[in-house]
Amino acid sequence: GVGGDSQINTVVGILKSRTIAENAVKKFNLIERYGSENMEEAVKSFREYLEISLNEENMVVVAFSASTDYFLYEDETGETRQFCADVIAYVISELNRINVEFQTRQANLNRVFIENRYEQNKADLKQAEEALKEFSEKYGVVSLPEQMQAAIDVAANLESQIAIKEVELEALRVTLNPTHSRVQLTELEIRQLNKKLAELKSGAEGDSGLDIFPSFSEAPQLGMTYLRLKRELEVQNAIFQFLTQQYEQAKIQETRETPIVETLDEAAVPVRRDSPKRALLVLFSGVLAVLLSAIYVLVVEYLNRLKETDIDRYQKIVYVAQGINVFKSQKPPAD
What we know:
The chain is mostly helical.
């Protein structure tokens, strides 16, 4: 069993990969078993026998078949059945191994990115703290109207959300392609937040209700500087809290080696052949037995008539038949 569509696509992609096919060919010596001339032919044959599908519960189902002669001894049948089960078990083990390696590489890339962004944020936060401290020491506490203070808080909150979403977007781009749904959704969220922030800063009227705040341009120059420094500090604090949590999660994810794919049903040894059907074999055997019996009756009847009508020709046929029998039973001379 696997998770969402993205993980299902990853699992199916690994199962269909050349890596698993080549490893299976080497593991079970399939070049010789299939009578292939090279690895390429053996891989092609292996993929024809490996079946990957999704059931009604959206779970990945893996099946494997093997071609055999129409008539086999019981020990040969048992070997073929066990071979199919062994191949499935090996494919699943390879799936988990490759998937863990893939997830570990992805987690490593994510951890490195978050770590670098975390270190950068610590420096940015320190700089914002020092800038606001220097401003306060030089000018004291700047008093702003209540509405302006509320606008600062809203703007700082929006900018914090935007900054966090931008970090998320950068992290997603490290491991996902630009057309991935999560990337596109995050980009849309950033655009919507930027639109709200622009409305707030300009004092533009709109459905968001942000027009109740005064425009930042109405604040005096000293107040504007204070606004900028205070917002910057609050934004960096919000980013720091977010990155601290993400950094710890990234380190845990990187060291996790638990298989992501859970096997709900182990590979089972098939109890009967898939094709040809047993009923067809029984029918074919019955028809063949009837034909051979009919031929035997016709031959015996023909020889009896020949014995009565053409004794010389009959004796020649008997002589030839006896000669063939003697030839078959004759032993090679001893050394």
